[in-house]
């Protein structure tokens, strides 16, 4: 059973347990109206969804290496919407239910609940914090905020989790009336927060203390692209694979607090790690002048865009833009295994084709077929759109018999996936990495 089915099965099982605990607590408590009961149930489901969010973003190595951090992050985002709507429903139904029982106006009942009911005030604070996190996570707001500002606000979600749990401990029927419920919820929250503590704090700390990474050299690949070579101790013990990326912090004045996700642009060899970065703005342009000897903190490796996902000996690699960096590393790994490889590299101009010379050299060494496809996104070739079904089939006629790895901008990645589906390539043979996340 794969990781996705494990997650689904565990979620279904926990949802059944939560429902059972609700029914037991509802029977043991004083009679409540249907609105109050519905409010309690949506609150419990909201708490369960919040725990799932924590697990999805815990970066647990076993889970992340099989699903990929980009997919887990997407699921985390959608789970966040469920958390928000379930908590909103909890607030609305509980307020309406108690107002109906007390025969009081809704606004008056809000004041009574918030200021005169045990620990509802801290639950209200948790609710406001969740709203703030949700508002700043909306796409429009996210584009206007610096990553560091967004991340700082996002950390408030952990405070909301703690405050919400304290509210649940005090007034939740699962806690006040059920020893089994107390054990269940303490264990569930403890496990989720423990995973975060180990995977997000403990493991990176141990690895950085052990490997002591430093910048060895900065190599200019083009006027706006550099490769940064990073060395350290015992790198052969670092479980990094071609196609993966790290969250990098370069400890220089003014930038030590910034985390940048960059893919490895060469297969790890146990002696050094290499990333290749294009100056896309202030966040990456300064790396062109980072001095050798600079200490580096790295969190990872992350990503499921690796040879582990391969199902066939024949491979097609498709790269677009700077998304070529993990593809270049994968080509090196597949070349050493003497696989049947085809490579398509999509770039606007020859000058934008980063690492093209390295790709040609590797392709020549292993006998891979390489196609450099140049032109704007609207370019049309002899067989139609340059990454359309006819054109792709003309370049790689046996594409249905290959595992296909695609990495590039989201628009290109989605277009290629549609093309592969049109050509009849099974979904299990299509492996993608959304470089917008790793860039």
Automatic annotation (TrEMBL):
Cofactor(s) needed: FAD
Record's keyword annotation contains Iron: yes
Residues in FAD-binding FR-type domain copies: 208-308
Places the protein is found: Membrane
Transmembrane segments annotated in the record for this chain: 42-60, 81-100, 120-140, 152-171, 183-203
Any Pfam family the entry gives: Ferric_reduct
Topology versus the membrane: Multi-pass membrane protein
GO molecular function: 2 iron, 2 sulfur cluster binding; flavin adenine dinucleotide binding; metal ion binding; oxidoreductase activity
SUPFAM superfamilies: Ferredoxin reductase-like, C-terminal NADP-linked domain, Riboflavin synthase domain-like
GO cellular component: membrane
Keywords: 2Fe-2S, FAD, Flavoprotein, Iron, Iron-sulfur, Membrane, Metal-binding, Oxidoreductase, Transmembrane, Transmembrane helix
Highest taxon of source: Bacteria
Full protein name: Predicted ferric reductase
Upper taxonomic lineage: Bacteria, Bacillati, Actinomycetota, Actinomycetes, Pseudonocardiales
